[in-house]
Design brief:
The chain is mainly alpha-helical and about 210 residues long. Helices cover about 80% and strands about 0% of the residues.
Length: about 210
């Protein structure tokens, strides 16, 4: 990629277009890279990410498959491939893809987080909690990992630790709706009913509908 400034510019422009929500235009721009450019692992990985945003899961998986075939040591492509597999309901394969990404990059917080999500889908709650914990240890400000770990803890009957996770997520991201709802449910399960009502009232005041 560094040796091809034109391709590098196309990728940068496509990233910006996708970030602005112009995903179809971003794909058209990537297609302008030509056959050799389209085969580049970074281009295939980016195309796969854009396909996922467009809900084109099978196209995304094909793009990620090409990326990892052309660059077997590309952790982001393996991680993104896992996301596509999970969205297609191929959860065991998704876990294997996340495992491959983490073998290549052990401190890959997002892959630990996504692996936790897949393990949760498999009802392997203990393993999911551990995966979220590793994501948080690497990236303490990953509020989504706090919320999802809280959800699993709550499902396992551990309302106290779940409440701690939801509270931490809200300190990281005030008014994080999923964290507020989780916090209300944890308070309810702890029979702290007045606080549950107060939390619900605050949410309703901000979201009256």
């Amino acid at each position: 990629m560094n040796r091809d400034p034109d391709l590098r510019g196309i990728v940068a422009a496509a990233v910006n277009l996708s970030a602005a929500g112009n995903n179809e235009e971003a794909l058209r721009l990537l297609e302008s890279a030509g056959r050799e450019g389209l085969a580049h692992p970074v281009v295939r990985n980016l195309a796969g990410d854009i396909y996922l945003k467009l809900g084109r899961k099978r196209d995304a998986l094909r793009a990620f498959d090409t990326a990892v075939r052309n660059a077997p040591d590309y952790p982001e492509a393996h991680g993104n491939r896992g996301v596509a597999l999970q969205q297609l309901g191929r959860i065991e394969e998704a876990v294997a893809a996340f495992d491959r990404a983490l073998k290549l990059r052990p401190a890959y917080a997002v892959a630990h987080f996504n692996r936790g999500n897949a393990l949760r889908d498999l009802h392997r709650n203990g393993d999911a909690i551990a995966a979220y914990g590793r994501a948080i240890a690497i990236e303490p400000r990953l509020a989504e990992a706090r919320v999802n770990r809280g959800r699993v803890l709550l499902a396992d009957g551990s309302a106290g630790p779940a409440l701690d996770d939801f509270g931490h997520a809200l300190r990281l991201r005030p008014h994080y709706r999923e964290a507020e709802i989780g916090r209300m449910e944890a308070l309810r399960d702890l029979a702290r009913f007045r606080e549950t009502i107060e939390a619900a009232d605050r949410l309703l005041l901000r979201e009256p509908d």
